[in-house]
Amino acid sequence: MPDRRPGLDPAVAEVRRAVRTALDTVPTGATVVVALSGGADSLALAAATAFEAPKRGVRAVALTIDHGLQPGSADAAATAADRARALGLGAEVVAVEVAEEGGPEAAARAARYGALAAAATRLNAHAVLLGHTLDDQAETVLLGLARGSGSGSLQGMAPTASVHDATLLRPLLDVRRATTRAACVAEGLDPWDDPHNVDERFARVRVRERVLPVLEAELGPGVAEALARTAAQSREDAEAFAEMIDETIEDIVEHAEAGISVSVAALAANPAALRHRIIRHVVDAEFGQSLTRTQTLEVARLVTEWSGQGPIDLPACTAARSGGQIVFTAR
Questions:
Q1: Residue 41 marked in a binding site
Q2: Who has the most CB within 10 Å: 6, 113, 250, 285?
Q3: Residue 279 has what DSSP assignment?
Q4: In this structure, which CATH number among 3.40.50.720, 3.30.465.60, 1.10.1040.10, 3.40.50.10420 belongs to the domain 257-330?
């Protein structure tokens, strides 16, 4: 059956189709929150949700976060909420305080996700819809690679995720940014252009404005799509590894005094990639800390290159070899 009616703009049809697929996972009668900055991506998402949600018996509420980071932010947030109401959505504005530590981008993101999760809880929402596009995915992968984040960076953003117990849905991860802007034009919507999106003090903006265009020019078109495909494939690999770890870890991990221990023989019997993932998983699950690759390799040497070395200091714990066990102890 054709997806779009005669006369329906192709960009509008593509965005609606993506949102429709995401809403198919939402129960009838449920509520969803649409994160609306007022930019083209989130505005196209809001418009498509306003069209698709009622047909599925889903209530949608747009939530605009005012970070207060630039003059006029309150007015921009109020305008975004008005546009959501004009589309037929419920709309709210929430002002947040952005912490100073951790860098402005990370701090603003933490405040935003915290507010979205709190709103989802208050509204008893099934999910929060985010307007991240394929271009955002490509930028995320490149930034992660540049920062040396390892294979995790290749996974990019997941279509479905959880933050602060809130379910996040990203319907537009296969949709280009140019498509969302074209959809806004076709529907007569006037998106807000955030000045921060062209401020080259931010690494993501430099990737968007400089790095990706150079890669496209030097390597040919399709770089963003290739990065997005790589992210999807990497997530599949990571999910497979996670299943293997869950199956393996029950047999090789024991609780120890003030910590946890892992069988040396079992770690040695596994391939290096799985061994390293088990080590990282144990520290993350038990102590809530992420290990760098260097730290992971140092712990692995207690298994593969044991020569009597002493305990290794890690975030929140130490790792030491004791008999046939690697013992992780809280510090």
A1: yes
A2: 113
A3: H
A4: 3.30.465.60
How many Cα atoms within 13 Å fall on the side-chain side of residue 218?
6
Annotated binding-site residue? 38: yes
CA-to-CA distance for 280 and 292, rounded, in angstroms? 9
pLDDT tens column, 36-55? 999 999 999 999 999 999 99
Query: Residues 94-131: pLDDT tens digits?
Result: 988 887 766 777 888 888 999 999 999 999 999 999 99
Question: For the whole model, what pTM was predicted?
Answer: 0.80
- Whether residue 39 is annotated as binding a ligand: the answer is yes
From-to residues of CATH 3.30.465.60 in the chain:
257-330
Note the pLDDT tens digit of each residue in 187-244: 999 998 877 778 888 888 999 999 999 999 999 999 999 999 999 988 888 888 778 7
In CATH terms, 10-226 corresponds, of 3.40.50.620, 1.10.1200.120, 3.30.930.10, 3.100.10.20, to 3.40.50.620
Residues β-bridged to residue 34: 62, 129
Instruction: Say if residue 75 carries a ligand binding annotation.
Output: no
Query: Residue 304: in which H helix or E strand, if any?
Result: helix 293-304
> What one-letter code names the amino acid at 102?
G
- Is 40 annotated as contributing to ligand binding? yes
DSSP 3-state of 48: helix
Residue 37 marked in a binding site: yes
Within the chain, all domains assigned CATH 3.40.50.620 are found at 10-226
Average pLDDT, the chain: 90
